[in-house]
Amino acid sequence: MLKNVLLVDDDKEMLLAMQEGFKEYQESFSVLLAEDGLKALESLKTNVISLVVTDLKMPRMDGFELLAYIMAHYPDIPVIMITGYSTPEMEQLARQGGAISYISKPFLIENLALQIITTLRKESEGGTLHNVNSGIFLQLVEMEQKTCTIRLEDKSSGQKGVLFFREGDLLDARVNNFQGEAAAHRIFSWEDVNLSIQDGCALNENKILKDLQPLILEAMRQKDESVPEIAPIAVMKEIEPLKQDSSDLIKDIKDKIENGVGERCGLEDIYQDNSWDRRLSELSKVGEFFNMGKLMLGYIDKGDANDYILLPNEKTTVIVVDPKCPRDKIIQVLND
User: Fold this and answer.
1) How confident is the model over 311-319, as a mean pLDDT?
2) For position 226, what pLDDT does the model report?
3) Are 44 and 34 in contact (CB under 8 A)?
4) 298-300: strand order across its sheet
5) What is the value of pTM for the model shown?
6) pLDDT given at position 230
7) What is the H or E stretch that residue 55 is in?
8) 324 has which bridge partners?
9) Cβ–Cβ < 8 Å for 196, 150
10) What count of Cα atoms within 13 Å lies in the side-chain half-sphere of residue 170?
């Protein structure tokens, strides 16, 4: 994900000079401009910012005031301060206020760019994943009790958001000008995302106070309600799952279960259905990310007349079984 760096300075020539100098690094980060601290606040509310570089002396809101606001409301965003009037006392105040670096003018644009890139790399120090389902991944974050900051990008809309976890608890969320529970609902409605993980969480206060699962379910409910109703059509054709009952693979699986478990194995049907392929691929990708190994099979209890065992392959093999089947024995046989 391309990261946004916000440059704040009331000197327009300085802003444009930095913008021009950073064009060489546009594959690493993009640049947004603000002419003073108040303009910077507007940009922070409407954009996902990864780092702020701000001048110290500015009208309306100076660099120290901007730094204090960012530390209070966006503590995950690192701040680099620049000034033409450097003193040891000012540098000490800046670092005590939360700035990660303090740079005196004049400076080499290459040195500042290197510092920005080094800092931005921490956003993905815990790893990156592409084309995954956010709900599946985040439930594993909760289960693993991870402490991390997760930045997500919705592939369909291009929207970006941030989630803050401490020991598996979701403390806060941010997307556009939304924060807290409202932001979490928007993020959890994204089905296909790219995400990066930063180890550690700058927040301590829990601003959401809800478990993850109810938040995800509420996001799905809101999404379903927002889908416009489609007028009925005159002819409806039921789409049958892609079946290959005659394949050698299906015959081998059937024989393996019946020989290994016996006549009372509860086997109802076996077929291949490629509508499961993507979801199982996502589960396997997330499982490997958490060092849980590759997905070998999944058991689905939907509360219906039948349960399902899913075997990932080029096309997912669906094994339909009676809910009263000896599931543990079947799973053991399939894994042998």
Assistant:
1) 84
2) 65
3) no
4) 267-272, 317-321, 307-311, 298-300
5) 0.70
6) 39
7) strand 51-55
8) none
9) yes
10) 30
CA distances from 11 to 40, 56, 62, 84 (A): 14, 11, 13, 12
User: Which residue type, as a one-letter code, is found at position 107?
Assistant: F
Compare 168 and 239 and report the one with higher pLDDT: 168
pLDDT one-digit tens code per residue, 235-288: 333 334 444 444 688 888 888 888 888 878 888 888 888 887 777 777 777 667
**What is the structure's pLDDT at 5?**
97
Distance between CA 327 and CA 298 in Å, rounded?
A: 11
Of 59, 119, 123, 71, whose CA–CA distance to 95 is shortest?
Answer: 71
Q: Is the four-CA dihedral 289, 293, 295, 299 of positive or negative sign?
A: negative
The three-state secondary structure class of 211 is coil
Looking at residue 9, its amino acid is D
Please name each of the domains of the chain with its CATH number: 3-122 (3.40.50.2300), 125-226 (no CATH), 248-335 (3.30.450)
Amino acid at 71: M
pLDDT band at 52 (very low <50, low <70, confident <90, very high): very high
Which residues on adjacent β-strands are paired with residue 160? 153
In this structure, what token pair is assigned to residue 266?
């509860």
For residues 302 and 308, is the Cβ–Cβ distance under 8 A? Answer: yes
Judged against a pLDDT cut of 50, whether residue 45 lies above it is answered with yes
Radius of gyration of the chain, Cα coordinates, nearest whole angstrom: 26
pLDDT in tens, 171-212: 999 998 889 999 999 999 888 899 999 999 999 899 998 888
Element of type H or E holding 270: strand 267-272
Copy the structure tokens of residue 170: 């979701």
Say what the pLDDT of residue 279 is.
73
Q: How many CB atoms lie within 10 A of CB 52?
A: 26
DSSP string, 137-179: HHHHHHHTT--EEEEEEETTT--EEEEEEETTEEEEEEETTEE
Closest CA to 213 of 172, 169, 243: 169
SS3 19: helix
Count of residues for the chain?
A: 336
Token pair for 179: 């924060």
Write out the two tokens for 117. 């890139």
- Cβ distance 88 to 114 under 8 Å? no
